[in-house]
Specification:
The protein is α/β, with parallel strands linked by helices and about 475 residues long. It has helices at about 40-55, 65-80, 85-95, 100-105, 110-125, 160-170, 185-195, 210-220, 235-245, 270-280, 300-315, 335-350, 385, 400-410, 425-435, 470; strands spanning about 5, 10, 15, 20-25, 35-40, 130, 140-145, 150, 175-180, 205, 225-230, 250-255, 260, 295-300, 355, 375, 395-400, 420, 440, 460, 475-480. Bound molecules: nicotinamide-adenine-dinucleotide.
Length: about 475
């Protein structure tokens, strides 16, 4: 049975859309249609922005509530999401192919963690501070909510990445219009249900399912105050241009091509580090922005590192995303699989050595699957080492010493994530400090609510998560007395 929604969540209720156009959602594992959702048009975005504007401008409304009152509503929202956790995980996995073990562990839980975390941040943050002016008088420094936020979300971790935005924005007192990606619109409906059940006031959170045109329309909308975008670097550049022209604040979480640096003293026993290596390099079959998809290996142990990664990737269970034992599901779409296969062909053509995979797994007649793929003898100038593939493809690059490893790691347009693998964590920390990136792990990679997350260079502008993210949804105002 397919899931069908013919209404849009705008202004706190389910309203009829302005047109009969719909988005059809297809399962990445089975290629079967699993649902359809009303597609927002420009008039629906106008209505959603009006609802968010009205809610924000209400002098007794959300923006003016005491932080503790907002925090209570956010905690109710968290509970309402938790009660839908299993259904959220099912929907995410059946749409985008994320193995359900991963969607259950992250997508079903992280948004509620974030809402509770930012409820705590809201309670603990002083919104107004008095400073004694150096030239006399008192300066009141106020942190006010920035206004109506246009939030644009990709399909790869749709629940968590939406919550990266709405949790701090709600804590700050902002209202939102959220545009989910067309591939993942069914799970977003559960977030709207949870917000309504939790008594988040009408118009504080609105959803406009649609593609890139409707996203671009939202970004340029005259009545929003801030844009928060997660997605590709190409789309991010276009959004940055619009926001530059409008002088509109924008946070951009974009692509990555991070380095996993294996130092020459690293422990390579897969029984000890296999799961962590998998999570840091191939999670969600490579469709995760922060993964270390360039593996930098010391020349002295190069063959051993290649064998370790080939053994790790070769042992992963490929299958239907809804099978709880699956570790590698399908690509999100036929288009994404074609893109990944194009890069695999390019890797071979440019002279890299295919060590594992490279094709479609046997026995998977349906679904957009690609085998976990390992290339050795990759030069950092190769296309597969420079461009984001967003699939289960790792490039193993040899280096001479730690300085050379850092040089290669930094020889990238991107700077989002990364890891260092070593038996000596002080040495690992020293290397991690020298890598030009927004986040990096030593012998692990963790996304934690408290740790600011984002990129440098073409990986983006600004930070999400951590108490710092609250500030990106606030405007600072000084009142001199
Ligand atoms: P995408 O840029 O094609 O789309 C992302 C979202 O933006 C979708 O909702 C899409 O409809 C919308 N969109 C696309 N073009 C737009 C435009 N010009 N104006 C407004 N909205 C537009 O990216 P994708 O393929 O959905 O996601 C994969 C990409 O996202 C990868 O590059 C990945 O690295 C990146 N990503 C980054 C992070 C991060 O936190 N840095 C996290 C996850 C994914």
């Amino acid at each position: 049975m397919t899931i069908q929604y013919d209404k849009l969540f705008i202004g706190g209720s389910w309203v009829s859309p302005s047109s009969s156009r719909t988005i059809t959602v297809v399962s990445a594992s089975t290629e079967e249609i699993i649902g359809s959702v009303a597609e927002a048009q420009e008039a629906d975005v106008d209505a959603a922005v009006d609802a968010a504007r009205t809610a924000f401008d209400d002098s007794n409304g959300w923006a003016h509530w005491e932080p503790a009152q907002r925090a209570e509503a956010m905690e109710r929202f968290a509970s309402a999401l938790e009660s839908r956790g299993q259904e959220i995980a099912q929907r995410v996995s059946s749409q985008n192919g994320m193995p359900i073990a991963i969607s259950s562990a992250f997508e079903a839980t992280f948004p509620a963690y974030l809402l509770r975390y930012y409820a705590g941040v809201a309670r603990a943050t002083n919104l107004e501070e008095d400073r004694t002016g150096l030239l006399g008088g008192t300066i009141k420094v106020r942190h006010q909510p920035i206004g109506v936020v246009g939030a644009i979300v990709p399909w790869n971790f749709p629940q968590s990445l939406a919550a990266f935005k709405y949790a701090p924005a709600l804590a700050a007192g902002c209202t939102l219009v959220i545009k989910p990606s067309p591939e993942t619109v069914l799970d977003m409906r559960l977030v709207a249900d949870a917000a309504a059940e939790a008594g988040i006031p009408n118009g504080v959170i609105n959803f406009v399912p649609g593609g890139r045109e409707i996203g671009a329309y939202l970004v340029a909308h005259p009545r929003i105050d801030k844009v928060s975008f997660t997605g590709s670097t190409a789309a991010g550049r276009s959004i940055a241009e619009t926001c530059g022209r409008l002088l509109r604040p924008v946070t951009l979480e974009l692509g990555g091509k991070s380095a996993a640096i294996v130092l020459d003293d690293a422990e390579l026993d897969l029984a000890t580090i296999g799961q962590k290596l998998f999570q840091a390099t191939l999670l969600n079959q490579g469709q995760t922005c922060f993964l270390g998809t360039r593996v930098l290996a010391p020349r002295s142990r190069y063959d051993e590192v290649v064998q370790t990664f080939a053994a790790m990737a070769g042992s992963l269970k490929i299958g239907d995303a809804l099978d709880p034992t699956t570790q590698i599901g399908p690509m999100v779409s036929d288009r994404q699989r074609n893109r990944v296969e194009g890069y695999i062909a390019k890797g071979k053509a440019e002279g890299a050595k295919l060590v594992l995979g490279g094709g479609r797994p046997a026995g998977q007649d349906k679904g957009w699957f690609v085998e976990p793929t390992i290339f050795a003898n990759v030069d950092n100038n190769h296309t597969i080492a420079q461009e984001e593939i967003f699939g289960p493809v790792l490039s193993l690059i040899a280096y001479d010493d730690d300085d050379d490893a850092v040089r290669i790691a930094n020889d990238s347009d991107y700077g989002l994530g990364g890891t260092v693998w070593t038996a000596d964590s002080d040495r690992g920390l020293g290397v991690a400090r020298r890598v030009q990136t927004g986040t990096i792990g030593v012998n692990t990679y963790l996304l934690d609510p408290t740790s600011p997350f984002g990129g440098v260079k073409a990986s983006g502008i600004g930070r999400e998560l951590g108490p710092e993210a609250l500030g990106s949804y606030q405007q600072i105002k000084s009142i001199c007395i």
